[in-house]
Amino acid sequence: MKISCINNYYNKPINIKPKTASFKGRDNDIRDELWEDNYSMSMLRAHALFEAGAHECFNIKVHSIPTENISDEEAKKLDFDYNSLKKLPVNNLTITTNRKGVRGSCLLEKNKKYLNDLKKAGINQVIDLRETNNPAAYSELCKENGLKYVYFPINGNNEMTQYNKAHLADLIKAINDGNFYIACAEGINRTDITLALNYLVNPNEKIVPHLKSRSPLQAIKYAQKNMKIFTDNFETPEEKEAYFENLGWRADDKSAFEAFNQEYKNRNIHLTSVNRKH
pTM for the complete prediction? Predict the structure, then answer.
């Protein structure tokens, strides 16, 4: 199937090089990987698939993440068996930079059998970043395999919503607790955005994530853009203060939000610097 021209969100024509895409239906989700450096491909992707008549998940090989190998000494320090996990035939599966979990593609349909392998290897929770109409189905599969399910959806335009704002503390707790498997559809773009966001807002996260998408700096920009969801639209200063206290921000000489805001500026610099070089 070839796609040559579509309309974007603003109904302006966009010309792209024809691509041949192989589509495979799954869970009404749109897979990530049409991201390019010059402009946002997320809205382009959604409309391209819609115009092509593909309303479900599809496989397209544009970018992939190599599985990271670690030393035996480092593996022994982990709370989960990474050496077993990296043998699973799952797209883009690799360890996270903070060594607290593993990232990869969504484990549904033919891959759902690997949920049990996650549990056997010491993974305790699945963080799902896909926007789906039926998170309960994946939640039930995780429950059947003894895994906690954490839903933190990012839509096809790489935007977060008030739902994310209400559940940001759940995401932070899941990552702090460790032994997690975090995934969007392919485990690349939205996974990068979320790991960047976690570094920016999680007071306990001290390790700068090495992002894996084709354009790490673009992922950082999306994380930064989404920050307004978490810092704006509070009815009172007290409500904002309580929100950031709940995220874990504390300081003796300043408010919780002031402590966050000061650290946020520093972390932005570190995150961009590391991923520009990485």
Answer: 0.79
